[in-house]
């Protein structure tokens, strides 16, 4: 018989007990955590769902858990989860991920935030939860997450997230919110590279880089220090033409001296147009230009890969959390429960995406099949 000490669940053994007196303990803390984790895999979206799942799968759960007093009630599950320490819980999940021994060399770690829209509570003066996540598309895994109450807090959350996860040898991509010298220093300190968007929140830096590319075009692209790479894509009734232009750091731009490890500056120009312009519902043609700094050398084709992949954190993680896990509709919000369950959803999403026992199966179908058959659930958890 398997026990909780020789499977991945052991990473939760270090969680501090949030309940005050042992006299109130009828259920082990790890039993409640694992029940919530497995319930999240198996389509449970409320505390009542998790309790029902436990009662239906009690025999299977007994292989891994003690369950001395049976399955806890949904009120008990909600109360305990809401009192967990979020930072320690994130570290426990990180232990599980570290055990996968991922090779991140050369892979992109794409960091961005998402707000759970219905996690606010006006009666308790609680703002909507904002989670900053690190997504590795090439490994189909969310490396880690940090919870904040405001999108503006991403500036302080990102360094904490970078401290939590292993990024050695990887390339971190961030939008303009992450264009901060302390964040760059943390990335370099942890022996990784970066590609970071530059916008108006760094006005001197933005103006200096924009002037360089404006002069490049005025000179009719004659400056050979600049390199470009073009890529076209057709999707959803539109064609996107993307050009990435890079150059080594110009020595005359003193504003760049403060950015540790910087080797190149760049511009991304995206032009979108409809496949069929005569279609009345076709999108309007548009052009968008952004600038960035990078610790990578001025190789346009290489940087273009990371620039394009940055949006997988939006498409593969955030969009999936809303569509497959209905995160935006969740009303779980008491205490720390929104942050804990938000991290569990991201963790479960990673497990589902990495599961190869059900090839060519959608995430929704994987969740349903795991709920119907414990062999499939075992494969998701331990495969």
Task: Outline the structure in words.
It is built from 13 helices and 9 strands. Helix 2 (47-56) packs across helix 4 (74-83) and helix 4 (74-83) packs across helix 11. The chain has a 9-stranded mixed sheet, sandwiched between helices. A hairpin with a 2-residue loop joins strand 6 (227-235) and strand 7. The longest helix has 18 residues, at 337-354. Mean pLDDT is 90; it is low at 1-6. The protein is α+β, with helices and mostly antiparallel strands and 383 residues long. The chain has helices spanning 29-41, 47-56, 58-61, 74-83, 86-98, 154-164, 181-189, 203-218, 300-309, 312-325, 337-354, 363-372, 374-382, and strands at residues 108-116, 129-136, 141-148, 171-174, 193-198, 227-235, 238-248, 264-274, 286-294.
Spatial strand arrangement across the major sheet: 3-2-1-4-5-9-8-7-6
**How would you sum up the global shape?**
elongated
**Which residues sit in consecutive blocks of at least 5 with pLDDT less than 50?**
1-6
Largest sheet, described in full?
9 strands, mixed
Question: Which structural class best describes the helix and strand composition?
Answer: alpha+beta
Q: Could you give the count of β-strands?
A: 9
Taking all Cα atoms into account, the compactness measure Rg is 23 Å
The N- to C-terminal Cα distance equals: 18 Å
Summarize model confidence as the mean pLDDT. 90
What level of helicity do the residues show? 25-40%
Number of helices: 13
| SSE pattern, N- to C-terminal | HHHHHEEEHEHEHEEEEHHHHH
Approximately what portion of the residues adopt beta-strand conformation?
Answer: 15-25%
């Amino acid at each position: 018989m398997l026990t909780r000490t020789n499977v991945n669940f052991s990473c939760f053994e270090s969680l501090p007990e949030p309940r005050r007196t042992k006299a109130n303990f009828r259920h082990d803390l790890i039993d409640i955590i694992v029940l919530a984790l497995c319930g999240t895999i198996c389509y449970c979206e409320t505390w009542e769902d998790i309790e029902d799942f436990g009662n239906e799968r009690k025999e299977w759960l007994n292989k891994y858990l003690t369950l001395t007093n049976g399955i806890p009630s949904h009120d008990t599950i909600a109360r305990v989860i809401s009192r967990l320490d979020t930072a320690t819980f994130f570290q426990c999940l990180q232990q599980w991920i570290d055990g996968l021994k991922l090779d991140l060399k050369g892979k992109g770690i794409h960091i961005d935030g998402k707000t759970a829209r219905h996690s606010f509570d006006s009666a308790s003066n609680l703002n909507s939860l904002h989670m900053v996540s690190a997504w590795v598309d090439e490994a189909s895994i969310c490396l880690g997450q940090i919870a904040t109450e405001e999108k503006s807090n991403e500036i302080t959350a990102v360094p904490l997230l970078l401290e939590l996860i292993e990024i050695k040898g990887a390339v971190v991509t961030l939008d303009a919110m992450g264009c901060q010298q302390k964040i760059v220093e943390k990335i370099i300190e942890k022996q990784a590279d970066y590609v970071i968007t530059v916008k108006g929140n760094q006005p001197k830096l933005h103006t200096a880089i924009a002037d360089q590319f404006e002069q490049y075009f005025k000179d009719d692209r004659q400056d050979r220090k600049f390199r470009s790479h073009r890529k076209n894509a057709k999707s959803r009734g539109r064609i996107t033409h993307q050009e990435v232009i890079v150059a080594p750091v110009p020595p005359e731009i003193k504003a760049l001296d403060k950015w540790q490890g910087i080797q190149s500056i760049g511009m991304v120009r995206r032009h979108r147009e409809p496949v069929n312009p005569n279609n009345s519902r076709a999108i309007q043609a548009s052009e968008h230009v952004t600038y960035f700094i990078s610790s990578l050398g001025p190789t346009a084709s290489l940087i273009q890969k990371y620039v394009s992949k940055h949006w997988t954190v939006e498409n593969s993680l955030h969009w999936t959390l809303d569509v497959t896990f209905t995160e935006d509709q969740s009303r779980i919000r008491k205490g720390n429960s929104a942050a804990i369950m938000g991290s569990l959803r991201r963790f479960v999403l990673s497990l589902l995406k990495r599961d190869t026992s059900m090839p060519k199966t959608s995430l929704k179908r994987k969740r349903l099949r795991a709920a119907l058959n414990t062999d499939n659930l075992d494969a998701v958890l331990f495969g």
